[in-house]
Amino acid sequence: MHRFLYLAQRRPDLNFAEFQQRWRAHAQLAATCPDVLAEIRGYRQWQVIEPEADGVVGVAETRCADAAAVYRMLECAGTRLVLQLDERRFLAVPCREAGLVADERMLGTVSDAGTTGTVLKAGGFGCLWLAPRLAPARGATEAAVSAALEKRIEQLQALLPAATDDPDLQLSLGRRDAADEPAAFDALLFARFNDGALAKAVATAWRLAAQPREKVFHLQCSARETTHSEMPR
């Protein structure tokens, strides 16, 4: 499974209510584009619980079967001629410049952190960590850059047991697809919870440990997700 995830930054001339209305309408507009829907296996909008954090008020994730399906979705006529035009009505930064195409690998739960392929019911609260896409240091090999990122991810995972003992935690790791040249980020960790307090505890721990240009968001799933925006296929 792959996903396209982007940070939704509100246009400064809109208040929060206006932004939310236009963002919801954008999701409904996507449902009128058959070529977009043909590639999507799930879609969800998240609200940043601390609004205006770093100028970001929401996060959207679109899940597709593989990377090829993500690119077909991003490049089809419905996206280019309908959705990208509509983005200008509410986003300060276009979707493509504020997100990444990434794989999705389940890391399991706090009590089973090494398990892959774990399938859990997605919670209504989340904590998202994003690693910035940085130019490699002079002389650094691709293997060294990858190893450094892996070590950073392990450090963040090590903070989980101290912050939460939630047995229903769903944790996934995503790495930027090699073909995603516009991506602003290199990797993500996405933890989902059924308890907002636990999500906040992890967000706080990750934020305190964050390095320069890393981003951490405490999220809550939009109330309408179960009826409108969540479209598993």
**Structural class of the helices, strands and pairings?**
alpha+beta
Number of strands: 9
Global mean pLDDT: 86
Strand order, biggest sheet? 4-1-3-2-9-6-8-7-5
Along the chain, the helix and strand elements come as EHHEEHHEEEHHEEHEH
Flag low-confidence runs.
110-120, 225-233
Dominant shape:
globular
Determine the N-to-C terminus distance.
12 Å
Let me know the largest β-sheet: 9 strands, antiparallel
Beta-strand fraction estimate: 25-35%
Cα radius of gyration in angstroms: 17 Å
What is the overall number of helices?
Answer: 8
Topology record:
Layout lengths: L1 E8 L6 H15 L3 H4 L2 E9 L7 E9 L2 H9 L1 H11 L11 E5 L1 E4 L16 E8 L9 H17 L1 H4 L6 E6 L9 E9 L2 H14 L5 E7 L3 H5 L4
Antiparallel strand pairs: 1-3, 1-4, 2-3, 2-9, 5-7, 6-8, 6-9, 7-8
Helix pairs in contact: 1-4
Explain what this protein looks like in three dimensions.
The protein has 233 residues and is α+β, with helices and mostly antiparallel strands. It has helices spanning 16-30, 34-37, 67-75, 77-87, 142-158, 160-163, 196-209, 225-229, and strands at 2-9, 40-48, 56-64, 99-103, 105-108, 125-132, 170-175, 185-193, 215-221. It contains eight helices and nine strands. α1 (16-30) runs antiparallel to α4. The chain has a nine-stranded antiparallel sheet. The radius of gyration is 17 Å and the shape is globular.
